[in-house]
Specification:
With about 300 residues, this protein is an alpha/beta fold. Helix content is about 45%, strand content about 10%.
Length: about 300
């Protein structure tokens, strides 16, 4: 499938049973739910998909099942978050053979490369397959900042198509355009900056909270991208306390708990993450239930 780089792409959660084994049927059912809601594409095995908590064989099995289940209804991307460049290149080639439509590539995990090392990593993965690539920049989480100057250096790699900008600094979108023009398409990667990002030129949104609130996320995107700013602000102000959950180190636990509260999945995570307990759990449940009590009326499939 040719990738249409626009719209709302959930960072899909990987669902587990109480024994922390992947619940493949539940994960596939959740994928069906997101596609039916009208998502423009899916990203498996990102941060929210607990990529680094899965074994190599589990990742490949999940991708095979997901590609078969989606059956071309929407593009399917996979995160590439490996410890070495060689492993990242191998995973990129395997993902291409499995039939995914694109890659979301992260810097190498654990070791924080300098500029030269990081550029070399992205060049190598870019050349490992013919798949189009979304470059994921998230220095708050991964300690490596892909700067506009680095993207200018990488501009000669034809498979690098898109930037998921998650630096938590909306100025970066304008800095990127000023430095590299329209060479890359821009996606918002921070849930509680999506409205600002659309205004600054983002054509897509990789979202975590969409797993729990798919219709509301699509409605917000539709309103923002058609210039209906007051209506978009109204939903955004309702949604923002939930969207803030995406920016916390425990975003995976928070998003999965929100899904469970909405009846859309299990809150189980894989160790070293653990399900929330005590006061912290009650605080997140309170945020979600307050939002549910004031939930806007949104019809299914408002976008696409």
């Amino acid at each position: 499938m040719r990738l249409d780089w626009h719209g709302v792409y959930p960072a899909v959660t990987t669902l587990f049973g109480n024994d922390q084994a992947i619940d493949f049927p539940a994960t596939l059912a959740h994928i069906d739910r997101l596609v039916a809601a009208g998502m423009h594409g899916l990203i498996l095995l990102g941060t929210v998909g607990e990529n680094c908590s899965l074994e190599a064989g589990e990742k490949r099995e999940l991708l095979k099942l997901a590609v078969t289940r989606v059956a071309g209804r929407v593009p399917v991307l996979t995160g590439v978050a490996e410890y070495t460049t060689a492993l990242a290149c191998r995973f990129a080639r395997d993902a291409a053979a499995i039939g995914v439509d694109g890659l979301m590539v992260l810097p190498a995990m654990v070791y924080k490369g300098d500029v030269r090392e990081t550029v070399a990593h992205f060049r190598a993965v870019a050349r490992a397959s013919a798949l189009p690539i979304m470059c994921y920049n998230n220095p708050p989480s991964y300690g490596v900042d892909l700067t506009p100057e680095m993207f200018a250096e990488l501009a000669d790699e034809p498979t690098l198509a898109c930037i998921k900008e998650s630096s938590d600094n909306p100025r970066r979108l304008t800095d990127l355009v000023n430095r590299v023009g329209d060479r890359y398409l821009l996606f918002s990667g921070v849930d509680d900056l999506v409205l600002e990002s659309v205004l600054l030129g983002a054509v897509g949104w990789v979202s975590g909270l969409v797993n729990a609130f798919p219709e509301e996320s699509l409605r917000l995107w539709e309103l923002a991208t058609t210039g209906r700013w007051q209506e978009a602000r109204d939903i955004y102000r309702w949604y923002t306390p939930l969207l803030h959950l995406d920016t916390h180190p425990k975003l995976v636990q928070y998003i999965k708990l929100a899904m469970a509260e909405c009846g859309l999945g299990s809150e189980m995570v894989r160790a070293p993450r653990l399900p929330l307990v005590g006061k912290e759990r009650e605080e997140i449940i309170g945020i979600v239930r307050k939002a549910l009590a004031g939930r806007p009326q949104v019809s299914p499939r408002t976008s696409r």
